[in-house]
User: What shape does this take?
Amino acid sequence: MLRFGAMRLLSALLLALAVCGPAAAQGTPAQREVTVATRVLPPMVVEREGALTGFSIDLWNEISARLNLKTVYRVQPDVRALLEDVRSSQSNLGVAAISITSAREAEFDFSQPIMNAGLQIMVRGQGKDGESSPLRDLMSLLFSWTSLAWLGIAVMLIVVPAHLMWFFERGHKNGIIPTPAYIPGIFYALYWAAGTLATQAEEGPRHWVGRVLGILWMFTGLVFVALYTAQLAATLTVQQIGGGINSPDDLSGRKVAVTRGSTAAGAVRDLQAQVTEVGQISEAYEALLAKSVDAVVFDSPVLLYYAANDGKGRVTTVGAPFRKEDYGIVFPRGSALRLETNVALLKMREDGTYQRIYDRWFGAR
Ligand code: GLU
Assistant: This one.
């Protein structure tokens, strides 16, 4: 009887254990597994010795630890493939450097912004591997459309006064045009006009109209030389800071590298640039350094990180971000995970964890 009672007690205990499961026995609930689409994009996502790290990865790992999730990453080649992975539910969510846009918001759900970003331009710098060589800049300036335009103005400023001067001065005794004939008289006049334009007039006219004209043209010459010098200096300076690319408007017709499917690709196409699309951002950097493109347009935090680290002295960013964007974590429409993620993310902002992760990758500012 006693033996039978002990047996029943034992089997009841075993049953209880089986129902509650091993996790309950240890006092912790079972971890849920989530698949997370991402893509390598330093410093947001960095691949180091086969493992993933970076700002976005560290941020998600912290969120997933707080939510007791087990993360399996699915690394995608570009942002388009990343979004497709989430769209097709292969992944439960996506995290990298995903900009929240109106088109994406219409199709996906986004977390609270995880970082402010925006599009910026990067060009070759002035370092030893950089673009600028004063001689090359000067040559390209001398043989440019700008120079041709100035040459046209100079010709006008020589031919017109030469004819006026020939008309009033021809055959004047001791004048600058000793003969009344058009040829060779006009050559004397042209020589005088060219000298005057260069502010180096050797002789003065004799006729009073010629004298008034002469003085007027000396001033015109001065202004011309001053304007030409100013233009030359400005163009050379601009060329040294990135081949004449100073703002988004300068990108029209230029060769620009962007990543496939990115917001930068759309923006640069709108600016009528010649777009080269690459998968990895490192390919865009290489194309810039190899001079096969004139600029890279991409997310400001990514470009600034490269310019301050591997690209130091070789590249430089131009101006401030010209279009502001925010990064978010992307979920399929209606995902229950979004609310939990947002709560964890906001708590991390409040308790300083977010700032610690930020400082780890971007330094204290
Ligand atoms: N912020 C860019 C976008 O969302 C990043 C693109 C990329 O990952 O290459 O379009």
User: Anything to note?
Assistant: Residues 39, 41, 78-79, 96-99, 259, 262-263, 299 surround glutamic acid (CB under 6 Å). The CA atoms of residues 84 and 90 lie 9 Å apart.
